[in-house]
Amino acid sequence: MELILIIVGAVLLFLLIFLGVLASFYKKIPQGKAIVRTGVGGTGVAFNKGMYVVPVFHKMEIMDISVKKLEIERMQHDGLICKDNIRADIKVAFFVRVNKSVNDVINVAQTLGCERASDISTLKNIFEAKFSEALKTVGKKFNFIELYEARREFRDEIIDIIGTDLNGYNLDDCAIDYLEQTEIQFLSPDNILDSEGIRKITELTAAQNINANQIRRDEEKVIKKQNVEAREAILELERQLAEKEEKQRREIDNVKAREGAEIQKVREEERLKSETVRISTDEQLAVQEENKLRQIIIAEKNKQRTEAIEAERVEKDRALEQTERERIVTLAQIDKERVLEIEKKNIQDVIRERVEVEKGVVEETQNIKDIEAFREVERKKQVGITTAAQLAEEKLIQTVKAAEADKKAAEERAKQLLIDADAKKEASAKQAEARKVLAEAQAKEDATYGLAEAEIMKAKAAAAEQQGTVEAANIEKKARAEAAGIEAKAEARKKEGLAEAEVTKEISLATAIGESSIIEKKSVAEAAGIQAKADAKRKEGLMEAEVAKEKALAEASGIEEKAAAMKKLDGVGREHEEFKLQLQKEKDVELAQIAVQKEIADAQASVLAEALKSADIDIVGGETMFFDNIVKQISNAKGFDRLVNESENISQIKKALLGDGHNGGELMNRIKYFVRQYGISTEDIKNLSIAALIFKMQSQCTSSEDKGILDNLLSLAKSMGISNNKLS
User: Fold this and answer.
1) Which pLDDT does position 525 carry in this prediction?
2) pLDDT above 70 as % of the chain
3) CA–CA separation, 184 and 88 (whole Å)
4) Which residues are paired to 95 by β-bridges?
5) How many of the other CB atoms lie within 10 Å of CB of 452?
6) Which of 437, 592, 460, 589 is nearest to 537 (CA)?
7) Quick one: pLDDT band at residue 688, thresholds 50, 70, 90?
8) Are 59 and 39 in contact (CB under 8 A)?
9) With contact defined as beta carbons under 8 Å apart, do 90 and 79 qualify?
10) Whole-angstrom distance, CA of residue 136 vs CA of residue 118
11) Whole-model pTM?
């Protein structure tokens, strides 16, 4: 077994070594190269794949088959002779590579060897003569100028002559790198071809020089001629200019001398007009500034009033929202408590039903026991009689003890009623004293609103105090009487049994409490009635704007009574009541302001009615704006009338435009004159405005003077604001 394993291991090792050696024999080649293998099996070539090369049996060489550039120069004395015998300096680049085929690679390898196959110097030695011969042959077919214009044809001719197959090599392309005419100094006069080239070059250059010189001379002559003509024209123009300037200077002096006085006159007149307009403008600006300041003050007051009203409205809305939120919370709490009470009631109903069931069970059990007892009654009759007698005696003792206990309880309740009566008496006295103090404080604070009314309230407060004291004494007497009655009844009922004593006690207690409550409510109602009468009396003598304030002060005692009642309310109700009072106060203040504004408006209306009773005026505006606008318009009209009456120039303009009352104005007369002259019909006058008539006459006018007059008339009509009016 071990021998077999050794043999297998040796075989595997041999195979691995063989594969490694075999892999080392495989040779790969990069792009642009070719493997040439010689030896056993003949010559082999590989381009895109590798091949096995076994040492001893094979020899491997690498051949470069990429493109190589060969440059062929024909410069100076060796320049290329063209068809017109002009020598040219030229550089041509030829792109050559070994043809990518097995036979061509083998042919090149056998001819030059793999190393020399792509050597530039070797390639140049091989192909330089052939390429130079091709250049000479092709160059003789083209003139020198054609070499520049037909480079592609020149290249194609070279490739056609050389061919693409060069004994294993392939000519991919050729290109002209440099092309220029050979300088004359490098040409030989003894060479017939160079002599011909020199002659042509000389002829061409001389002709071009002659043409260039002729063009330059013609340019100089034309420029000189133009300069002379320009100078003559300039001198003539300068002479004419001097004459014109001298003539114009004389005319200007005459015009200046003639117009000087007129200018001074016009200047003074214009200054007078400007001063008049300035003074009028200053007056109007002063009036406008006063109106502006007044409007600003009014707007500021309106803004302040609006802001105050808006702030009050926001505060009211906030208070209402707060009250509403608290009301909602309170209602939710009440609903919650109501639900809890309902659940408690349901639980009590369930318990009650359970007790009823248990009671029924107990009654049934008791009935069974009674039946059993009845069965034994005959047997234990004597024992029962003795037991009944004993029980009767015990019951009598218990009844006596219970009556004594009820008597003591009644006495305690009577004492409690006396204590409550004393407390109510003291509370009534304190409340009366509080009313008295509050009435005195309010009377002092509101001295400006009427000392007489305050004294009346003080007297009423004292009367209310006395009445409260009397009522408290009555309540005490009634309570003591009721207590004595209850005690007497309890003593009497003691003999009648426990049930009657308990009933009498409850009835007496309820009666006492009810009468006390009735008396207390009656006292509160009478006090409220007294205060209501005082309020009614005060309303008769006070203004409507002070109603809320005086009413609040007069109702001091009422507020105290109401506060005692409101103690039983929650916070939401109390805040709601306070908010109602605040709203009433604000309402009264607003009504007073409206009354003041009404009086102001009545006064303004009476003034305007007297001033404008015969005028037909459309008034636009609200509140006091219409009064201010009317005053403003009257001021503007008075200022304009004063300006027209006191200004001589404006009066002349008025007379020229509107006439003096007997004759029409110059503007209307001018327009009527042109209407008659240009044949404007009556329908045109009836239907067209002044501006439309002037435009129509301008379209028919041929005289420049009339057009100027019509333009002035149109401007004048627009400035006067009558361009849209009709003549008829």
Assistant:
1) 45
2) 58
3) 11
4) 69, 173
5) 9
6) 460
7) confident
8) yes
9) yes
10) 26
11) 0.32
Interhelix angle 648-658/625-646, nearest 10 degrees: 90
pLDDT digits (tens, 9 = 90+) for 487-533: 555 455 545 444 443 434 443 443 434 444 444 444 444 444 545 55
CA dihedral 274, 276, 282, 288 (to 10 degrees): -110
Q: For residue 672, which amino acid is it?
A: K
Answer for the pair 94, 69: CB distance below 8 angstroms, yes or no: yes
For the chain, give the longest Cα–Cα distance: 195
Res 540 pLDDT > 60: no
Residue 573, helix vs strand vs coil: helix
The closest of 95, 155, 156, 150 to 120, measured between CA atoms, is 95
- Identify any residues that bridge with 81 across adjacent strands, giving them in sequence order: 87
Confidence at 234, pLDDT banded by 50, 70, 90: very high
Judge contact between 202 and 189, C-beta under 8 A: no
- Mean pLDDT within 105-127: 83
DSSP percent split of the chain into helix, strand, coil, nearest 5: 80, 10, 15
Instruction: Output the pLDDT for position 332.
Output: 82
Q: Are 140 and 83 in contact (CB under 8 A)?
A: yes
- Asked whether the predicted pLDDT for residue 100 surpasses 60, the reply is yes
Gap between the Cα atoms of 265 and 276, Å rounded: 17
Instruction: Give the integer Cα–Cα distance in Å for 598 and 590.
Output: 12
Q: Output the six-digit token pair for 384.
A: 């029962």
Residue 235 is predicted with a pLDDT of: 92
Q: What single-letter amino acid sits at 393?
A: E
* Bridge partner list, 71: 93
Residues whose CB is less than 8 angstroms from the CB of residue 164 and which lie 6 or more positions away in sequence, other chains included: 170, 171
d(CA 502, CA 434): 41
Q: What is the C-alpha to C-alpha distance for residues 49 and 28, in angstroms, rounded to an integer?
A: 6
Residues 6+ apart with CB under 8 A from 439: 454, 457, 458, 460, 461, 556, 557
